[in-house]
UniProtKB/TrEMBL annotation:
Molecular function terms from GO: thioredoxin-disulfide reductase (NADPH) activity
The protein's name in its UniProt record: Thioredoxin reductase
Keyword NADP (UniProt): yes
BP term (GO), one: removal of superoxide radicals
EC number: 1.8.1.9
SUPFAM superfamilies: FAD/NAD(P)-binding domain
Organism phylogeny: Bacteria, Bacillati, Actinomycetota, Actinomycetes, Bifidobacteriales
Co-factor binding comment: Binds 1 FAD per subunit.
Keyword rRNA processing: no
InterPro entries the record matches: FAD/NAD-bd_sf (IPR036188), FAD/NAD-binding_dom (IPR023753), Ferredoxin-NADP_redctase_2 (IPR050097), Pyr_nucl-diS_OxRdtase_2_AS (IPR008255), Thioredox_Rdtase (IPR005982)
PANTHER family linked to this entry: THIOREDOXIN REDUCTASE 1-RELATED-RELATED (PTHR48105)
FAD/NAD(P)-binding domain boundaries: 9-299
Cellular component terms (Gene Ontology): cytoplasm
Pfam families to which the protein is assigned, alphabetical: Pyr_redox_2
Length: 317
């Protein structure tokens, strides 16, 4: 039996704030967690984030990649082992959990934490990738401060889009919410608040065709009216995309109970899933808060839940 085939105590799938925090706690508990960190983007969404100013402990802010590197080093310091590969298949229903990665290796453990996060839905329009982090953002609470007294555009029509638009109206010289329909998925109270906000305008029945800039930062968006095909340009130094998230849970199949959007369902305030020995933490199980600090807190809870599970289910019983 090779080392990789040995039965481990715990495998953590994912390497964002939730995964690394769980690894730190489990490592300090002497459980030597295996972290399957991903092949292309270990560290999660923060790897693509510039300055993070709202993570406690960094009064001058910290770059997203630096924060995740610090978390990785801290996890490794306490004995976490990292594998930079992608999970393609799992067998989680038995007492021994099996996790298979794209490189062909197969790992087994008594417990698994799913901490794979979620990805922002993109508009897939010209300029979106080019100006990502240079005007294009997917998190108002993360980046709104940088657009003080500048024109801002928010794209979306759900509660998240309206919440972001209201929040951003504290900073921007103006906020324009662009939605492809003339009706909203957002709750009536959110729409009423937006209508009452003098700094917030709405452009309906319209889609963003492109995000334009000077090569350094975003300056405007090109908008097409879906009913008239009229093309207009709206000034925007900040373009906030709020059209939803995609939880990274497809590899789980139908083993773990998910909601209708694909988020892992957990039991009450715990991180336990419907399967004994399988836990979930971070954005893949949290469609509400979706912040680095809340994901880290959930990773801590998952680690403590795993410790309790392993203590209550000794090997061989």
């Amino acid at each position: 039996m090779t080392e990789k085939q040995e039965l481990r105590d715990v495998i953590i799938i994912g390497s964002g704030p939730a995964g690394y925090t769980a690894a730190i706690y489990l490592g300090r508990a002497g459980l030597k967690p295996l972290v399957i960190a991903g092949a292309l983007t270990p560290g999660g969404q923060l790897i693509n984030t510039t300055e993070v100013e709202n993570f406690p402990g960094f009064p001058d802010g910290i770059m997203g990649p630096d924060l995740m590197e610090n978390m990785q080093r801290q996890a490794e310091r306490f004995g976490a082992e990292l594998v930079f590969d992608d999970v393609i298949d799992t067998s989680l229903e038995g007492e021994e959990k099996v996790v298979r990665v794209s490189g062909g290796d197969e790992f087994r453990s008594r417990a698994v934490i799913v901490a794979t996060g979620s990805n922002y839905r993109h508009l897939d329009v010209p300029g979106e990738d080019e100006y990502s982090g240079r005007g294009v953002s997917y998190c108002a609470t993360c980046d709104g401060f940088f657009f003080r007294n500048k024109p801002i555009v928010v794209v979306g029509g759900g509660d998240s889009a309206f919440e972001e638009a209201q929040f951003l109206s504290r900073f921007g010289s103006s906020v324009t919410l662009i939605h492809r329909r003339n009706e909203f998925r957002a709750s009536k109270i959110m729409v009423d608040r937006a209508i009452a906000n003098p700094k917030l305008d709405m452009v309906l029945d319209s889609v963003v065709e492109s995000i334009n800039g000077d090569g350094t930062s975003a300056e405007s968006v090109t908008v097409r009216n879906l009913k008239t095909d009229e093309i207009t340009t709206i000034p925007a130094n900040g373009v906030f995309v709020a059209v939803g998230h995609i939880p990274q849970t497809g590899f789980l199949g139908d083993q773990v109970r998910l909601d209708d959007r694909g988020y892992v369902l957990t039991e009450g305030a715990s991180t336990r899933t419907n399967l004994p020995g399988v836990f979930a933490a971070g954005d893949c199980a949290d469609p509400v808060y979706m912040q680095a600090i809340s994901a880290a807190g959930m990773g801590c809870r998952a680690a403590l839940d795993v410790q309790s599970f392993l203590e209550d289910a000794p090997l061989g019983q």
